[in-house]
Amino acid sequence: MEMSQVWPRLAPSTQTWLVEHNGEPLPDDILDEILTITAGRRDPRWWAGDSHEGETQLTDEAVDWIDETANGE
Fold it and tell me: Given this model, what pLDDT does residue 52 score?
C-alpha cells in the first residue's frame, strides 16, 4: 500500500505529527496506526526499516511525499 493510500486513513493528529516531524523516527503509536491500516504490511516504498537504535524510519521517498503533500504540491 502506497503512502498516498495510507494518508487519508490516518487520524488528522497523526498527519499533523508526520508533517511537523517529517524525517524523524516514528513513535510506536504512529507506527501502530500505520500498520493497522496496512494490515501489518511494511511496504518498502515507505518503510526504511529499523535503525540500529531500533527506531522505525520512513524512506526518503515517503518523507518527500509527505513534504510535497504538506506544501500542496
Answer: 62
Place of cell 505529527: 17
Helix (H, G, I), strand (E, B) or coil at 5: helix
Give the pTM.
0.87
Q: What is the pLDDT of residue 72?
A: 87
Query: What confidence score (pLDDT) does residue 44 get?
Result: 84
- Report which secondary-structure segment, H or E, holds 57: strand 56-58
**Domain edges within the chain:** 3-70
Strands (E), the chain: 47-50, 56-58
CB 62 within 8 A of CB 32: no
